[in-house]
Amino acid sequence: MITHLRGKLVEKSPTGVVIDCNGVGYFVNISLNTYSQLSNDENIRLLTHLQVKEDSHQLYGFINSTERHIFRLLISVSGIGTNTARTMLSSLTPKQICDGISSEDVALIQSVKGIGLKTAQRVIIDLRDKILKAYNFDETIPVLNNTKKNEALSALEVLGFSKKQCDRVVMTILKRIPEASIELIIKEALKNL
């Protein structure tokens, strides 16, 4: 509904800003990441997300589209509300969140205040594929598009191993030995399964 605001910066704090847009002041909740990148210029532009609830309408502001996209992905996970997502974006950069989810780093996600083990695991399970498809990671994307990986996974599945278990092991092998042949991937995977 409200996709961005452009106006005069009236107030600025680590958790929110007030933007005057032609005489109307909008209070916008922000993360520390956005706060640290906001200039002290009088005129600013923030991308926004409008959260409509039965008892309130809240605006959340973001310095760029990547941060807003990560926020929207996070609030799509059961158990993650807008305040928890904002806390995550205040504790970690969007890149750190993406890296943590794509590498299945439960400890990193769990390091955010208010996120327990089960919620961290749910975030990773729900968002891993979406993050890998949407963002270009130096380590993960070449591995994902690797036909050797797909062929090795197919062979391991035929041998009776679960795809989820094999995928993790094969990813680890390809990160360690990017130029590995299909035979080597399968042999190494069998040692670790």
Summarize, please.
This protein is of the alpha+beta class and 193 residues long.
Structure description:
- With 193 residues, this protein is an alpha+beta fold.
- The protein folds into three domains: 4-62, Beta Barrel (OB fold (Dihydrolipoamide Acetyltransferase, E2P)), CATH 2.40.50; 65-135, DNA polymerase, domain 1, CATH 1.10.150; 141-192, Helicase, Ruva Protein, domain 3, CATH 1.10.8.
- It is 52% helix and 19% strand.
- A five-stranded mixed beta barrel has the order 1-2-3-5-4.
- Helix 8 crosses helix 9 and helix 8 (147-158) packs across helix 10.
- The longest helix is centred in the middle third of the chain and has 18 residues, at 117-134.
- Residues 138-145 have low confidence and may be disordered.
Spatial arrangement of strands, main beta sheet: 1-2-3-5-4
Shape verdict = elongated
Helix and strand composition category? alpha+beta
Indicate the percent of residues in helices.
40-55%
Number of strands: 5
Separate helix tally = 10
Spell the H/E element sequence. EEEHEEHHHHHHHHH
Alpha-carbon distance between the two ends:
49 Å
CATH class of the largest domain: Mainly Alpha
Number of domains: 3
CATH topology of the largest domain: DNA polymerase, domain 1
For the residues shown, what is the average pLDDT?
Answer: 86
CATH level-four homologous superfamily name of the largest domain: 5' to 3' exonuclease, C-terminal subdomain
Pick out the low-confidence regions. 138-145
